[in-house]
Known about the structure:
Helices cover 47% and strands 0% of the residues. With 91 residues, the chain is mostly helical. It has a domain at 19-69. This is Helix-turn-helix domain of resolvase. It comes from Spirosoma endophyticum.
Amino acid sequence: MDLPKSVSNQLTDDQSPEQPIYAEKRYGLYQRAKELQQQGHSIRAITTHLGSSRNTIKKYFKQAHFVPKTRKRKSNLMTYEAYFTAALASR
């Protein structure tokens, strides 16, 4: 069974990039992957169709239910915050 090449993940007109939509997008991707899995599609076909990585889809295949991330990754940039603040102040 072949699936169409890719699905675009564009924002709708009422959504802005600042809104916290990452979790909803991940859940939507999980749901679509599980639906396609139940229809008998392969991991490769699903990754091509959804435009996601193979490891992500493989992880979703193994999960019985959606597991949201508990915390966001912290940037290493905050380690250097004092340096940047001092450098900007000296300008």
